[in-house]
């Protein structure tokens, strides 16, 4: 009996170590896949909310940088200067436990224009590396103003106002709060987002 218990303990310990190694390797592999997949203009959607909404969303404004309105506890009263750029490697580290779905607009020109608009309106008017625009995080239904704002408002505005005369986003965005995980449903059929994978 004692021998069986000892054998079980050894097997269990070895399995736990083995699972730990697989998990660590899987995370490393997943990170490699993520950073090699995401490109400028992609939209990143996670299921875990940070600022009072279900889920979170951001946009890649260059091949290495993610622009977002992060939110955090205390969002109900507004959070000053909450807009930020974060390296895509760091984005993965912050969201590796809640999975990120990567979406891409099929029209590359539209997507680039949207990413550039987001950068100019939410970070630096010259598309520079230094943050010179400071946006307060607050959930609101005013889609025409960029300050205050929140994560999914940033994305929808970029594709609605930043794409010239092209009708990319449905007009149903006005006077409502946009939930991050519902972003794809606001794109018109000719610009339907492509799901590039979950990481």
Automatic annotation (TrEMBL):
<protein>
    <submittedName>
        <fullName>Uncharacterized protein</fullName>
    </submittedName>
</protein>
<dbReference type="InterPro" id="IPR038765">
    <property type="entry name" value="Papain-like_cys_pep_sf"/>
</dbReference>
